Amino acid sequence: MDPRRNVALVYATHNYGGGAERFLNQLATHLAGLGHRVTIVCRRHESAPHPSVRFERLALRSLGNAWRTWAFARAVEKHVAAKSYDVVVGLGRTWSQDVVRCGGCHRTYLDLERHHLMSRWERLRGKGALKGWVALQIERRAFRPGHYRRILVNSEMVKRDILRRHPVRDEDVSIVY
Question: In terms of Cα–Cα distance, which of 102, 118, 117, 92 is closest to 160?
Answer without folding.
Answer: 102
